[in-house]
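Re: the pair you flagged

First of the two:
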Amino acid sequence: MNPISFFTRTRRAGRIDITDILSWVWLIGGTFVVLLPVLWAGLSSLKPAAEITRFPPTLLPRAAVEQTVPGFDKPLSLWKVTVDGQMREMAMVRRIGLKAQMVDPANPGPPVSVDVKGMTPVQKLTVATQNYTDPLTRFNFLTFLKNSVFVTFVATLLTLIVNAMAAFALSKYKFAGDTTVFVIIISTLMIPLAVVMVPAYLVIVGVGLADNLWGVILPTVASPTAVFLLRQYMLTIPDELIEAARVDAASEFCIFWRIILPLTAPALAVLAIFSVLWRWNDFLWPLIVLNSRENFTLQVGLNAFQGEFSVQWHYILAMTFLSLLPVTVVFLFLQKYITTGIAGTGMK
């Protein structure tokens, strides 16, 4: 379909209905609400550190213009001030309370006291690329990124395999207590995470996986949500396919691997997206398990930029915005399966 005709089509051909207007308002407004925080974070990640905390805030990344003034060791910031009824550009030497000491950068003389309420900073558009380059060169960001990619990839792969096998058994095999087992699995969704966190950590310590990336991966592999999603989708697969494969002497694993998994691809894609989001954004469990800085995942490593008395917001925003890219790429590749996978879940 032509994109232009798709976006300009109306409920009635040749007429614009009130529902068309409401739909466009709803879609545009919703898109704006969702993208505004991302846009703000992206633009703020390009601002110098001093501009992030400036009030009132500005949308575009700007920085104060500085100029070298004879007689002063460091460049001074330029401000627009009113002196003797005239608007002039002057350099600020120091600020004391509500008064600032200003000098003329072209002909520096004795400082002039100016009320700060009548001052306006001289700014220019500036892209602070050091917000991205400094963490990559001076800190362990690449190590954090590598650990997060490893945890996300391995945990997602194991999640798909383990939960698909459990869903296959619960959907295509009839045995005593199969419904009870499924109900017990689903009922674990009602257990708060805080209840199982301490026992899970004690198990991890007992098997020697504390401060290890595998200690972050293994406890999160089994998921009742994943079992429910895949089981409900597998129920839509005709049992006649399995019976025909058994007649052709196919093993149970061959049936699962070559018939069930390909047909369950939409649901697996949905689960893969969810799993990537869960593991990539997970903060609390890696924070509890990992102690060594070289084992930190990205979310835990970003916490290192937050000190006791100061927070390096320019680094946090830059690295947070950069960490959105892998999840966005995964979503773009798998988004076409979301509707198919969710719509088919629960249909029989």
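Second of the two:
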Amino acid sequence: MPQLPEELTRMIQIRYAVSQPFVASFLAGGVAGAVSRTLVSPLERLKILLQVQSAGRTEYKLSVPQGLAKMWREEGWRGFMRGNGSNCIRIVPYSAVQFSSYGFYRRHLEASPGAGLPPLYGLFCGACAGITAVCFTYPLDIVRTRLSIQSASFATLTATQRRNLPGMWGTLVYMYKTEGGPPALYRGILATVAGVAPYVGLNFMTYEVVRKYLTPEGEENPSPWRKLCAGAISGGFAQTCTYPFDVLRRRFQINTMSGMGYKYKSIWDAVRTIVRQEGVKGMYKGILPNLLKVAPSMASNWLSFEMTRDFLKGLDPDAPQVA
């Protein structure tokens, strides 16, 4: 039997490796994260600016169109993308770990491969996947938050100061050296996990339920438009339920920055202070731009993930068709 050329053998090995379920989900998750976050970067940054604005600050007491216009006037198109580079650097591994770990946990709870899970099992697997992803990528998330707000008009900055703001690596080093070493890079992680676990769990559970409902009888996959719809519904529902945790996460990530007007001692102290000073609506600051960006973000996230994953799984020479 003649031997295959070395290049062809290597190509077959690579195709087989990337088509394995865990690897395919990992790579597809990374692609999905980068695509979805870049599409909604301006709204993501506006949401953060609204979240971190405390009582008595009015720089971003604006509507969504006014806030976006203010960003454009003060910083141009770079303002829309401020922090997106570090966000993509964070979201690619975060999304990759999240999707691949969800598949890993799911396979261990399914009665048989492809049998599906009851909604509560999906909720549990999603929560575990969210916690896993946060633990791996949290320092990049806190740096993304710092980069998103450091050039905004919360403080008076000269033109020279704006041009010389530190980047991702400089911010990491500065926090490590001046704010307490490694713990500084994980500040706010408890509030993050408290919000991410139910959010990711609800997101995965809702997507699976809605996707199944939107799949025509006798078929295994809905159309791309139905997948987009399922992603938008799941993201909006999960985000609305868990949004106060996201506000707490942002506040704690910049709790040591000067000029912000607050220094919280604990999660409960933060909740009491926010509600007392800003009302219950303070726990929902920034939710409008967030909901406006969640629908296209999660829709493109799920569609990009499924399309990329199915393409990679289809590279397997022994299983060219993906169910």
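The domain at 11-152+166-313 is CATH 1.50.40.10 (Mitochondrial carrier fold).

-B.
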